[in-house]
């Protein structure tokens, strides 16, 4: 197998194993790889900032604050489809608290699914990574009183993402399994 | 015709006529309208910021700077398609300087077109608004030595966006004309 910049990625892999790369780093790393391989064009949206005091001459922000997002963090295009997702790490090893997802993000999810988007959560829980379809998240919310999703729901309904050398978190592999294989579209751009 | 929040929009229109709304405001206003009407889900990406000094206890940014984008400003989903575009105001009334578009944005444009995106520029030049297809922008760059696009190129090859009451800059109307009518898809989500 041919790995351009192989050293960099093996270094990342070692860093991941030794130091614990967080979920955001793993996804950014995968997105860099997909871009390089021309497999997908997916970016993390910058965190929205409220500006209070800016020195425009120097181009320097002197006072600002973080704003809350009303969308998901990552979006882009894969196999001709609009893709839009959120990544979350669960501190609890037994369940994923729904308080991690804001109400306006659920509204956003409903909207984009209605328009034909591929949308999901990537959840890191109990040392495993799961792709949970947006439709399944909505199903859980609509049919449960519970304020957190038990790990058994992930084990039964979500797709576990296997770790690889490069990219470490090859989440588009899980996207293929969940969204494209079932439609009989395995290869190529639509 | 029924306009929810009609007053707000008529106020915007009056503001536009009297005070001159800039292109970004016009597009954000259109995107708000599309969201409200469930016509499309399109957002402006936040400006990327490089953090230098943050007081995480207070949640306050004490020093930061603006970073350069490597993508376009707006993206989302319309009629089931991934849409990704940039908006630019030209100070010159006779031509649009290509220095307005960075080299890595051109690279981004080539990538997303290759993956099946709808991508274009909205250019405000000489008191008119044009939708210039990404493919036509690339054609100009590849076949010209010129460092700016003359207005005649827009008049001949771009789609002029007509101003309306609501939204004032109904750019998806131009998207329909350019991308969907020619394919024979006039209505409905794909």
Outline:
The structure is a homodimer of 190-residue chains. The first copy, chain A, is of the alpha+beta class and 190 residues long. Chain A is 35% helix and 29% strand.
Structural notes for this entry:
- 2 copies of one chain form a homodimer.
- With about 190 residues, chain A is α+β, with helices and mostly antiparallel strands.
- Chain A contains 6 helices and 10 strands; from the N terminus they run ααββββββαββαβαβα.
- Chain A has helices at about 5-20, 25-35, 105-115, 135-145, 150-155, 170-180; strands at about 40-45, 50-55, 60-65, 75-80, 80-90, 95, 120-125, 130-135, 150, 160.
- In chain A, the strands form 3 sheets. In chain A, strands 1-4-5-7-8-10 form a 6-stranded mixed beta sheet, sandwiched between helices. A two-stranded antiparallel sheet of chain A has the order 2-3. Chain A has a two-stranded antiparallel sheet with strand order 6-9.
- The longest helix of chain A is centred in the first third of the chain and has 14 residues, at about 5-20.
- At the A-B interface, β1, β3, β4, β5 and α3 of A face β1, β3, β4, β5 and α3 of B.
- β3 (about 60-65) of chain A pairs antiparallel with β3 of chain B, so a sheet runs across the interface.
CATH class of chain A: Alpha Beta
Biggest β-sheet: strands ordered side by side in the sheet of chain A: 1-4-5-7-8-10
Poorly predicted segments of chain A: 1-6
Percent strand of chain A equals 25-35%
Give the tally of β-strands of chain A.
Answer: 10
